[in-house]
Amino acid sequence: MKTTRKDILATAALVGMLALATTGVLAQVIDTRIGKIETVNGFPTAEAAQKLFDESDFQRATQSYLWALPAVGFHGLHLSHLNTFGAKDGQVVLYVSLKDKAGMLTPNLTTIYAMSFWNLAKQGPLVIIVPAGASAGGVLDVWQRPITDVGQTGPDKGQGGKYLILPPGGPDIVNPEFIVRRSPTNQVWFATRGLGADPAAAEATVRKYQLYAYDERPRPPATKFIPVGGKDWSSEQPRDLKYWQYLHDVLAEEEAEERDRFFYGMLLSLGIEQGKPFNPDERLKKILTEAAITGDLLGRLTAYSKRVEGTEVWQGKHWEFANMVELDQNFKGYGQIDERASWFYEAIGNTVGMQGRTLGFGQLYLEAQKDNTGAWLDGGKNYHLRVPPTPPVEQFWSFTIYDNLTRGPMITPQGAADISSRTKGLVMNADGSVDLYFGPQKPPGSNANYVMTMPGKGWFTYFRFYGPKEAYFDRSWQLPDLQQVK
Fold first, then answer.
1. How deeply is 410 buried, as exposed, middle or buried, from its count of CB atoms within 10 A (0-12, 13-18, 19+)?
2. For residue 7, what pLDDT is reported?
3. Closest alpha carbon to 407 in 346, 485, 469, 462
4. Rounded-to-integer distance, Cα 93 and Cα 239, Å
């Protein structure tokens, strides 16, 4: 006779009732995704309780990993300034070459960067003197929300200006000399790019920036600029226990915001509490290490397999909007959980200029990780892409190739990871289109139109528009997908 599920359940109920009748104790075993959970009179056993608490801590940690990506990314870059480059807060680090930028998340390799950090609680209000000229950047808080843009996309419109950044709380400062903004966090990050076509002129522009404390304005000290100088470094978020140490340390300087209080509450069971050292026991170390590994995988999936509405740029193609994070990290009344995790897993910074919504100014970031068939881009395969004539940019366009694990530039024997309209020797077709080639083998005659990739490495690319024009916004100009060349 066939035994059915109904028979099994009836038998289990009978056994339970017999156990209850003979011992006065009802023992049950419940099947769950983490295994069997045993209860006695409805209460989990000690072993079951530990299993459930471990799972709860793991779940809290994996979601906290995604939530914390912008703050940990901020802190990782800050530590590189302090420990690798020897730059104190207020000193400006210059990123010039591919080697300089190799440790940065998805940098543009066509322009020079200048960056600095500042602690408003310890150093007081920050003055930033912005020179006139072709530069664009901003000041961001610890969650990488923009406090203000500066340069071409800022209130000074590239004409130069004086900015004053105030700490959270405290008295207002009214001074008509300055464009005054208040930061919601104590720690802030300044970054700008030199956009001039001539590298020497672009560096000269960013070296005219000045940073100093407001109280020093009667006799401001000279701003010190520190070149990276080709040092080996990395600011990618850790995939191990160090991630949680970073998070503990960066949050120690800040007050919890209303939007984040539930996450701060979840961190308590993970051993992260303001005013107390981070000292997890062996059980928690194991859970946090596993959560960091899983959190990194979830971040990777969130970035490369976006599940949010409106990611597709052109219907039927595999180009996506890389940056879908609103300036306040909210959209339609909701916190942007996946959008924020996607962008800050693979990138740093967010400003008005980086939103790609301003005609003729700012930057626009389009991303592709797949070819025209929907297959992941493979460093062991060769690809072709034709950029159509008359790209709609006021300044320039660029493709940059990134390693999908480090999210930094793909490092190859060629020593290049990008092609742009400023690339020396770039060959254009008679109609103004440009044929580009990516892969481990250089096609004959491709010359400056070729970027090497590495077998065994996945990759993705950003296509940047600097100063997008109307033909992008009305979708009359479109990029084709990358196609494998066999």
1. buried
2. 52
3. 346
4. 26
Find the domain containing 431 and state its range: 306-485
The CATH number for 103's domain is 2.60.40.1610
Domain match, 26 and 107 both: no
- Averaged over successive runs of 10 residues, the pLDDT of the chain (486 residues) comes to 51 45 82 96 96 98 98 98 98 97 96 98 98 97 98 96 96 96 98 96 97 97 97 95 98 96 97 96 98 98 95 97 97 95 97 93 96 98 98 96 97 95 96 98 94 98 97 97 96
Q: Are residues 185 and 109 in the same domain?
A: yes
Output the DSSP codes for 431-448. Answer: TS-EEEEEESSPPTT-GG
The amino acid sitting at 306 is K
* Alpha carbons 377 and 399: distance in angstroms, whole number: 14
Tokens of 406: 């480090």
Q: Where are the beta strands (DSSP E) in 266-361?
A: 320-321, 330-331, 334-335
| 345 & 479 share domain | yes
Which structure tokens are listed for 436? 């580009």
Return the DSSP state at 336: -
- Using the CB atoms, write b or e for 390-408: b if 16+ within 10 Å: ebbbebbbbbbbbbbebbb
- What are the two backbone dihedrals, phi and then psi, of residue 402, each rounded to the nearest 5 degrees? -120, 145
Phi, psi values for residue 370, rounded to 5°:
-130, 155
